[in-house]
Fold this sequence. Notes:
Blueprint: H1 3-13, H2 33-60, H3 67-85, H4 90-104, H5 111-115, H6 120-126, H7 142-152, H8 165-172, H9 181-186
Helix pairs in contact: 1-4, 2-3, 3-6, 7-8
Amino acid sequence: MTVISAVNSYLSWGDQPSKSTPAAGSARQPRGDLEVRESYNVKISEAYQEFKAKFQEFHDREQCFGEDLAREAYAVRSKIKEAHQEQTSYLGRALIWMRNMVTYGGGNVSYETLSRSKNPEEIAYSAFKTGGGDLGLQNNGFGEKLDVWKAIKDVSTLYPEDITDAMVAAYKVQEPGKVDAGAILAARGGVSPASRNPFEEFLVPRENTVKTYA
């Protein structure tokens, strides 16, 4: 059985809620993996909100993030991740471990491994995205905003916290490998109800106070 087929099997039967009703006054029953995943998305997104002010200080001084800030963001994510992994079922943890072994060569990717391919700014921002789409897991949507930021950063002074859902929607409809930065920037301030992100309240972009150019 491949990792993907195991995931599909798990999603179909591995996280069914208990049909038994706990007795009044009994201890709270363990959370199902889907509930744990939703909590993980919320906690990571909430942590991002706390870091936005720190990010802004660097942006206001037109400075790149230092390694200290990147390590701090990585540590916060790791703490949240470890707490939620402890609440995940054995099968769920096993599937995530197998996926990380294939993707990163280890159970959990280290800061040192990330630093080989990402600079401190990229590490700091990526600490607040949740992935797992290849395992059929819901994410918090921040990874899509990072993709848009990377696509337009050479022609824009916007940061990930400035990216809106409408910009994400404009990016998604473009042909792969052919980014129209002008169309993406023009979508800023637009509304895209169809792509509503359930975690958007934690990922609210800043007001449009940054000059952009296409």
